[in-house]
Amino acid sequence: MTIVSGFADISIFQLLLVALMALFASIIGGLAGYGTGALMPLVLVPLVGAEPVVPIIAISAMLTNASRALAYVRHADRRRALIVLACAGLTTALGAYGYTRLTNAGAALVIGTMLILSVPLRRVLRRRQVRIGDTGLAVGYGVLVGGTSGSGVILLSLLMAAGLEGASVIATDAMISLGTGLIKISVFGLAGAVTAQVLAFALLIGGLAVPGAFLAKAFVERMPVHIHTAILDVAVITGGLVMISAAAKQIIA
Q: Which letter does DSSP use for residue 143 in this model?
């Protein structure tokens, strides 16, 4: 039975698999600050191919981040969110325009390594009461990596280095991602990458993000800050390892 015309034949079972993965990914994202973009391609690429996956995730991320921002709204650092967005607009647009191109393996190795090192470095700086200021956020994310693949985990690391903890990290990340997501969707729309089929999948994934975000919030509110910080640290290190692994595969290939 074909569910979405124009894509590969997709059965009810396959559609249910996408829905379950979307719910799971939204809960993981609500706890760790990112993850939907890393998990959803695992089920989407075999079903619809690689080309439409980025627009699907970009559109669904609007609902994912909107629900996350709503769930954690009282924890958000709006000032820092605006600072990052003001500097990330151009790089986000450029990143969306060039999303089909391969990322540079050397850059991925450097960024992945720095992500892993950022966890112990941040702990040392915290003990010495050193923080990344507004300029560090603006340059570190907005100017350098606002539009690159994997920038979500980099933003997570920078926000934590700037002194945000627990739900404040998730809320501020969601607000920033809403702004950058709107820019990406605008670019994809102008490029003709947003089709009816892409929109249908995006709405399915994004719609399930709403209950997922509030389920994650329930876990976070009952979790000590140091435990949630440890989860975020694991997420940052994992993201760094994934980037290094991807870069190594490019080099070997």
A: I
- Residue 121 belongs to some domain of the structure: yes
Residues 156, 235 contacting (CB under 8 angstroms): yes
Query: Residue 83, by phi and psi: left (phi above 0), alpha (psi -120 to 50) or beta?
Result: alpha
pTM check: above 0.85: no
Q: 2 in a domain, yes or no?
A: no
C-alpha to C-alpha distance for 207 and 184, rounded to whole angstroms: 19
pLDDT of residue 5: 44
Residues in the chain: 253
Residue among 145, 146, 133 at smallest CA distance from 88? 146
Are 208 and 16 in contact by the 8 Å Cβ rule? The answer is no
Query: Roughly how many angstroms between the first and final C-alpha of the chain, as a whole number?
Result: 38
Per the CB < 8 A criterion, the answer to whether 207 and 56 are in contact is no
* Single-letter amino acid code for the residue at 47: L
Taking only the tens place, the pLDDT of each residue in 165-188 is 888 988 999 999 888 888 888 887
Q: Which two tokens stand for residue 174?
A: 């969601």
Residue 7 lies in a domain: no
Tokens found for residue 45: 């690429």
In a domain, 24, yes or no: yes
